[in-house]
């Protein structure tokens, strides 16, 4: 059953105002972690989402569906599609608000099948903020930004401190990631 009838966001929110240093419309968003299943370039069978910011502001992510993503023959697996939306929504929240946030809740409506060989254009937007909670939603359209809607999703992202990752994650990998982010920022400062 579709969740379209339920009120969204489910609580009173304030508008989600992008951070002054959020990437500008037209910017391509890079890989946030090379081992990320959603966007990482070192995960051979990952989803390899490529995202950019549009005015709106929204984040559009392209997901090219391959044989590695099948559930039934020739059709994308629903769980992988949900993963693509987690990544696309997370990229919108993280990049537009520039705050670390994790997915607390993710709802997905599968409206039509997504064939292998198609590209899903996922447009994600921020719907509101209530304290640490950010609500976001997205539509995935087949083969073009104005193609037929195949999947819709909405989610709740909760802002966390860096200790969320240092306590529960891999500290060494985090330090390497932070060092490479610092290097990238220095390159930006030298060659803006
Ligand atoms: C520049 C930066 C660029 C970055 C780019 C990044 C791109 C990233 C792309 C990657 C994308 C991939 C991203 C991923 O895949 S992230 C990986 C998947 N997610 C997780 O692993 C998260 C696991 N969960 C937790 O760690 C904790 O449960 C969290 C941190 C979420 C909350 O535990 P915490 O103890 O901290 O806080 P709280 O429990 O007081 O909750 C806080 C508020 O939230 C409300 N609540 C919580 N859960 C739910 C729920 N299910 N439905 C409805 N409401 C819920 C709760 O009622 C409360 O509301 P209120 O009482 O305040 O009103």
How would you describe this structure to a colleague?
There is one protein chain. The protein is an alpha+beta fold and 192 residues long. It has 2 domains: 28-160, Hotdog Thioesterase (Thiol Ester Dehydrase, Chain A), CATH 3.10.129.10; 161-192, no CATH class. Helix content is 24%, strand content 30%. The chain has 3 helices and 7 strands. It has helices at residues 78-97, 163-168, 171-190; strands at residues 28-29, 50-54, 58-64, 101-110, 119-130, 133-142, 149-159. Strands 1-2-3-5-6-7-4 form a 7-stranded antiparallel sheet, covered by helices on one side. It is globular, with a radius of gyration of 17 Å. Bound molecules: tetradecanoyl-COA. Tetradecanoyl-COA binds at residues 32, 38, 86-87, 90-91, 94-95, 98, 102-105, 131-133, 156, 158, 160. Its main location: membrane. One of its GO terms (cellular component) is cytoplasm.
State the share of residues found in helices, binned by percent: 10-25%
For the terminal residues, how far apart are their CA atoms?
49 Å
The proportion of residues in beta strands is: 25-35%
Distinct bound molecules: tetradecanoyl-COA
Quaternary state reads single chain
How many discrete structural domains?
A: 2
Which structural class do you get from the secondary structure elements? alpha+beta
How are the strands ordered across the major sheet? 1-2-3-5-6-7-4
User: Mean of the pLDDT scores?
Assistant: 93
The run of helices and strands is: EEEHEEEEHH
Instruction: Tell me the name of the CATH homologous superfamily of the largest domain.
Output: Hotdog Thioesterase
Please state the overall shape, judged from the principal axes of the Cα atoms: globular
Largest sheet: 7 strands, antiparallel
Total strands: the figure is 7
- Regions with pLDDT < 50 over 5+ consecutive residues? 188-192
Number of distinct helices: 3
CATH architecture of the largest domain: Roll
What is the CATH top level name of the largest domain? Alpha Beta
Write down the CATH topology of the largest domain: Thiol Ester Dehydrase, Chain A
């Amino acid at each position: 059953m579709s969740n379209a009838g339920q009120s969204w966001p489910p609580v009173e929110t304030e508008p989600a105002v992008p951070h002054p240093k959020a990437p500008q419309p037209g910017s391509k968003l890079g890989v946030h972690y090379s081992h990320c299943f959603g966007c990482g370039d070192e995960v051979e069978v990952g989803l390899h989402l490529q995202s950019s910011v549009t005015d709106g502001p929204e984040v559009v992510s392209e997901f090219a569906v391959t044989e590695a993503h099948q559930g039934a023959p020739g059709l994308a697996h629903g769980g992988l599609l949900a993963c693509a939306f987690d990544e696309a929504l997370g990229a919108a929240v993280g990049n537009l608000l520039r705050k670390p946030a994790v997915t607390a809740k993710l709802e997905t409506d599968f409206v039509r099948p997504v064939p292998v060989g198609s590209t899903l254009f996922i447009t994600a937007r921020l719907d509101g903020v209530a304290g640490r909670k950010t609500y976001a939603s997205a539509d995935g359209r087949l083969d073009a930004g104005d193609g037929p809607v195949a999947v819709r999703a909405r989610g709740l992202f909760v802002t966390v401190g860096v200790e969320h990752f240092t306590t529960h994650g891999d500290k060494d990998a985090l330090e390497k990631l932070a060092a490479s982010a610092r290097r990238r920022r220095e390159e930006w400062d030298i060659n803006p």
